[in-house]
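#help-structures
NK: newbie question, is this the right format to request a structure? protein is ABC transporter permease
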Amino acid sequence: MVDLILDIDASFVETTFLITEDNIFVENQIFNEAGLIENTAQTCSSIVGKKYFFDENGTENENVNVIGFISALKNVKIHSLPKAGETIITRANLVSKFAGDDYTLCTMSCQSSVEDQILLECEINLFIQKTVSVG
């Protein structure tokens, strides 16, 4: 649920997502709370997940599968819900990260908005793990 990564580095990411009417999280033309949280989680996972998909030279690693989980949501504030047809901009800053060989735990501070209207603010903990490809 990320259309475009506008900016990304080791500790910050900014994405856009156009909400379509047929999105699973759209009810009566309104994008619900679970959709905002899922968009935020997918935005956040792009920072820590990229280490599994690309090597240090930027070459794509083929046949890599990654699974991720939201392990905690903290200080969630939902100010408003967007409508179908609107584009969300989500920004996330890395607060902390612990990386093992095949997994990463991280905490990120996040904010989603439509134009100048803040939709969501929260802190999210993610667990991301590289899985074994079969075949």
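mod (FA): yep, format's fine, and the tokens are attached above. Residues 33-53 form the longest helix (21 residues).
NK: thank you!
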